[in-house]
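ok so i was messing around last nite and threw this chain in just to see what happens. nothing serious, just curious
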Amino acid sequence: MTRKAIEAVFDNNDPQNSSPLEVFLHALSRIYAVAVKVRLAGYRHGIFKTRRLPCKVISIGNVTAGGTGKTPFAIYVAAMIHRWGLRAAVISRGYKGDAERRGAVVSDGSRLLASPEAAGDEPFLMAVRLMPLSVPVLVGRDRVRIGLQAIQRFAPDVIILDDGFQHVRLARDIDVVLLDSQRPLGNSHLLPRGVLREPLSSLRRADLFVFTRTTAKEKDTGSHPCRTLPFRLPDRPVFRAAHAPVLRVWIQPGQNAALEQLSRPGALEIRQLAGRRVFAFSGIAANAVFQRSLTGLGIDVSGFIGFGDHHAYSTDDLSRILDAARSAGADCLCTTDKDWVKLPRHVDWPLELAVMGVDIDLGGDAPGFAEQLRLRLCPAG
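result:
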């Protein structure tokens, strides 16, 4: 069962043209739906206990598998809380990290205490980006236990749960649900027939909705992604956010760059890539989106290789990338910051390497979003 075959099933919305694989995945999704509903009902009726931490908790999550921008959005919220003079800590599951089961402190806000392999790529990236703000980052599957550890060690006023919408065992004060404005529900099927993690009825648990990857055209025309949804969202505040691409690191041939460069406040000029033949690669949930974003910036992408999400790069992978880049006549490589933290640190790059990142831009919706968070975090003030 290859990834391409499954993706073909995701893209097929014709019930009259169902493959055996599609029928099989659909049957599994029905079983999955029952399991999810039973679990949620158990928490709703008190059969399973929900724990509350002695501080405010904000969850940044979604209802689909794959990237909606949770990592940059968690960084955005942490920076906002820091500006308010509150102490924040970020907790992530640490998916596919070696410390996912036992838990770990990735950063105490001033030092990196875990490797990308132990922490997982996204928590490690958050830890690096948030060090200038002295925001600690922790990982662990048991968010209640890790949350108590964070409180004991760092005494935060607010804990931010990265990818926490499905972790209903831990009570939260604010549930922020991100929806990709380009495809908010994937193919509208539950896993594994589609990418939905929960039935759409679960959206009633959300306090705020944010449509990410909103394009400039959508903002200019005033169009709203809610209008294209095949269902009605619960009556909650809705905001729109763009993903602003930034060039974070530029590595010259034969040089190495410290991971801490990702945390510097200023971004490099993307126009440095103008006139270059760029070979790009990534191992994220939205490889095609990354590739399109580069071409949308006017960058000449001479070739591209996409790996699975959270891909752990090997020396063979690097050889494959470099061979393909040479064959494409590229004079520059390009990848994402999430990928770069996983690449071997001591690589003698024969070509220049550009490391791209994404910043969240709420534009005119930023004041309203901040006010909604303030109302829920500080209802008396």
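not much to say yet. The chain has three domains: 3-44, 56-241+362-377, 243-360.
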